[in-house]
Amino acid sequence: MLILSFLCIGIVNAADDTTETPVASFSADVTEGKVPLEVQFTDTSSGDPTSWEWDFGDGETSDSQNASHVYTEAGAFDVSLTVSNANESNSVTEVGYISTNTIPVVDIDYIRPNPAIEGDTVSLVGIYVYNYTAITRGNHEWYSYLEERVICPGRTLYTGNLEVGNHTISFRAKDSEDQWSDPVYGSVLILENNPPEASIDSITPNHALKGEEVTFIGSGTDDDGVVNGSIIHEYKWESSIDGMLSTSNQSSFSSSNMSVGTHTITLKVKDHMSSSLPVSATLIVKGDTEYIQVSSEKAISANNPVNIVFDVNDTNLTSLEFSITDSNDAVILTKDITDELDSGIYSFEWDATDSQGEPLQSGAYKLSLLGTDSFGDSISEGMILNVDHTPPVIVIDDITGVITHEDIVYASSDLTVTISGSGYI
C-alpha cells in the first residue's frame, strides 16, 4: 500500500512539470495604412496556451488564436493579447501598435448663383471634411460631366465659362500619398443668355447749333434681369461724324462738342455678356451760317463725301456763286449757280476733289458763298471743311475676357477688344 501511494504521487508531479507557463506575444501582417484597414494578427506565444483573448483597441475583441480584424476609423490603437493554459495566464500590450488614417474627405460648400445666366460668374467652393493637412495646392478636381472635362484644379473656382445646360459637377481632392477622396456631387443650371435691347429715348435739342449742349438719353432692357449687380453694364454711343461719343455704365450724357452736320447717332447696350443690336437716330447740328449747311465738316474724303446745301429761298438774289479754296487762298473749285437754284436751293455732293476730279491733299479748305440781290446788297458766308484721306490705322490696345490668365484669353469666353486709331474709321 505504501508503494502504491508513492507511485500515485509520482505520476501527478510528472504531469505538472510538463505544462509550461504561457508567455503572450503576437505579430501582424500590417501595422499602418488607410481605413478600412484589414489586419491579420498571428499568435506567436510560447507555453502552449489553450485560450486567447484579443483586444484590438477600438472596442472590438476576439477569442481566436489567429485573429483578423478590420479597422474602420483613423487613429493609433493599442493591441492586447491575453493567453492562458491550465497553469496560468499572461498578457502583452503593444501601445500604438496599429496606426490608421483615412483618404481625404471633401464636400461642396456651395455653387452659386444657381441657376446662372450664360457668361455669369459662378462660384464653386469646396471644403475639407477630413485629412485636409495632407492635401497640397493644386491637388483638386472640379469636373463637369456635361462638358466632359476637368474645369479647375483648385479648391475654389470662379468661372463665367460654363456651357449652357444642366451640369452635374463632381469635386474631389488628392493627398500627399496620391490617394483621391471619394467624389462628391452637385449641379448647376446654366441658362442661355438673351441679348439686351437698346432704345434712344431722346436727343435734345435737335436741331442744335454748333457749340450748343446736346443731351442724349437712352435705355436698355434685358430679359435676364440683374446679373453681376446690374441689368445693363454698358451704354455705347457713337456718331457717324464724330465717332465714339461715350462708353460708360450711365444711360445718358451731354456734349457741347458736336460737329456741324447730319449725324447718325447709334446706341448699343451690353449686359454681362453680349451687346444688343444697334439702334439709331438722326441729329442735325447747324453751323453759325445762315445759308450754308453741310452733312459733315470733317473727315471728308472720296469714301466719305460731304453733302453741301445752299438755301437762299428767303432772299431776292440776282447772282450767286460758291468757291472752295485751300489754306493759301488758291481756288480749288468755283461755280456760278445763279441759274441752277431750285426754289432758292442748290445742293451737291463733294468728294474732296478739284475741278478736274483729282483728289485733294488732306487739310483744311474754305467753302465760301457770295451773292448779290436786286437792291445791290450782298451776302457772304464761309465755313471750314476738313479733308482727310489718311487710311485708318488700328492698334489693339488690350484684349480682356471673362476667363483671362496672364496673356491668354480663352476663346470660348466673351472678348473685349480695345482699339485706338487714326484716320476716318
TrEMBL record:
Superkingdom of source: Archaea
Organism encoding this protein: Methanolobus zinderi
Protein name per Swiss-Prot or TrEMBL: PKD domain-containing protein
Segments forming domain PKD: 22-93
Lineage: Archaea, Methanobacteriati, Methanobacteriota, Stenosarchaea group, Methanomicrobia
Any matching Pfam family: FlgD_ig
SMART domains listed in its UniProt record: PKD (SM00089)
